[in-house]
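As a warm-up, study this chain.
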Amino acid sequence: MKFIAYYRVSTRKQGNSGLGLDAQRAAVATMLDAPLLAEFTEVESGRDNDRPQLKAAMDYASLTGATLLVAKLDRLSRNAAFLNQLMDSQVPIRFADMPFADRFMIGIMAQVAQWEAEQISKRTKEALAAAKAKGTKLGGDRGNIAAIAARGRAASARKRSEATQTRAALVMPHIDAARAAGCVSLREIAAYLNARHITTARGGVWYAASVAKLVSSD
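Now compare it with the structure written out below.
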């Protein structure tokens, strides 16, 4: 398994001195059976969700198929909504102090918000049912079923296109870095990406053809 470490300290003084950082590194080290692919350190309050280093860590984990490794849950966040967003990113997350938890603890916190949404939905349905029972006309033109299906297919196609564009945006800086490092051919660029554990969108290795396809779609 491949790991990328994310550390967070609350103040710049802690970041400069290593106070708290050394303990996080020691905790992360207990989970490792191979060298880390990369380490990212944030100097930011846990209440602030603007985390450039966390975004960079998540992006790199997505590119390499690695798991994000954090010393403790509170080093990631105490905000349930923010944790839910991280869970939705599909990047695996593990905590050194809870090695068998994986996404479980994140899921528990996210479920609170989901439960509230379900309660709102339930009350809305009950209110609509009561209104319908009183003879109130609900909604308007539901549209043609074929048109609805067509819109669904179009939305699905847009989603796939957006995912492709997002992936290309993440990989292109690494392709630019490969060119800057002297890689001229598509095969050399593919070798550069593979050497850095960056995978294709399907989790495979790069070939000249796959690099050419991504570059042409950019």
